[in-house]
Amino acid sequence: MSDTQNLRVILASRPVGRPKPSDFRIEQAPVPTPGDGQVLLEVLYLSLDPYMRWRISAAKSYAPPIDIGDVIVGGTVARVKTSRHPEWREGDIVLSDAGWQQYALSDGTGLRRLDPAIAPPSTALGVLGMPGMTAYAGLLNIGQPKPGETVVVAAASGAVGSVVGQIARLKGARAVGIAGGPEKCAFVKNELGFDAVVDHQAPDFAQKLAEACPDGIDVYFENVSGHVWDAVVPLLNDFARVPVCGLIANYNDGPATSSGPDRLPATMREILAKSITLRGFIVYEFMEAQQDAFLREAGQWIKEGKLRWREDVVDGLEQAPDAFIGLLEGRNFGKLVVRLAK
Fold first, then answer.
1. d(C-alpha 203, C-alpha 194), whole Å
2. Does residue 173 sit in helix, strand or coil?
3. What domains, with CATH codes, occur in the chain?
4. Rounded distance, CA 288 to CA 269, Å?
5. Considering only CA atoms, which of 105, 123, 106 is closest in space to residue 114?
6. What pTM, to 2 d.p., does this model score?
7. What is the pLDDT of residue 226?
8. What is the CB neighbour count within 10 angstroms for residue 204?
9. Is 5 helix (H, G, I), strand (E, B) or coil?
10. DSSP strand pairing (103-106 vs 112-113)
11. What distance in Å separates the CA atoms of residue 83 and residue 272, rounded to the nearest whole number?
12. 3-state percent breakdown (helix, strand, coil) of the chain, nearest 5
């Protein structure tokens, strides 16, 4: 890594449908110099997450889209390389939002100091970071699982879904995971300890899901949509709760068309007839009130061996565009991070 050049990935064009490598541009710029009250961050790990697909789109969303020519947004673990800020020292390891680049300036706002002795720093981007907090807040505030209930989670081997199922079991519920392929399913069942797991790639997926949920579904944590949602809806019990966290099956959809069946009327009938609670959420609405509790509880669960995780590590910032495209297609296995430096 050069000490004078800042490698970064910028948005070259807005994707239409599936993102292409040409939608991203890798370039070099001079490493910025911190002024008074600033720090220069050297990025060690970059988090790749599905929400980034929204941020590179022009569609209206919970956050403004990034502009063409801007560095792609993203959470990072970084080292303070140079400090002209009274609260930060050179060598501090911090959680930051430096984005897809090797170096970034910060005035200290939003930085959180990490202790590598407690957990590997990269976990601040996964099980002890935004994905873990998403699972914790969405499940406990909206899902509200009770002992003995059935909790189903899609993308169960991923950064959010893996934590949802484990917390559900810690709260006394029965956890059923949905994952893609035998390897991911085996990980969910054998490593994470879910009570059951169903492969959404199986031709008889809907039947297998029904067999895994003989008493119906009380909480469904939605990360996917698409044909997974179609199989879940008939199994939802009266007063079921559905935290809507992600819709990754639809993120690469192109402009809306009139082809295909309109599922909305049937879904709305189920919601009305069964008094189902369906609530979308963005994790930041819970951050201020609950992040400290999450870090305390999740940290204790990890210490006791009750909360496990898996990382999918890609080396080199140049690999970020292809890794991100693969994430949207389900090619990652665990929390996807890019390692820029050790």
1. 22
2. coil
3. 5-126+310-339 (3.90.180.10), 130-284 (3.40.50.720)
4. 36
5. 123
6. 0.90
7. 87
8. 11
9. strand
10. unpaired
11. 57
12. 30, 25, 45
